[in-house]
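pinned: reference chain
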Amino acid sequence: MTATTKEELLGSLELKKEVYKVYVLYEIQSVGTFDFAYRVDNFKYPNGASWVTTEVDQTTSGLAEIKVRDGLFNTIQFRVQNDESDSRVGIIGFVVIYSYANIR
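pinned: its structure tokens
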């Protein structure tokens, strides 16, 4: 399974965003992991931006904090992947904590 969100998630392309944290909420499963990835400003690169991937153990907690290493950007895109055929991914949603850098 692979699921990708739209880049327009955070609104305007003209405004830079400063992301503080991304939290992934998921159903706890008995086995398995999934990869949660993001890339920023994909539209600025001819071959697309590279994905930054974090493997999440979905057998504990139900909440994963993803560190975003790129400070300021215009857009962000998320991808969830699961290559294990014997497990499910129960993504409930994700929360992005950010501010508009241009408006401060």
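why pinned: Strands lie at 2-4, 17-26, 33-40, 52-57, 63-66, 72-73, 76-81, 91-100. The CA atoms of residues 26 and 91 lie 4 Å apart.
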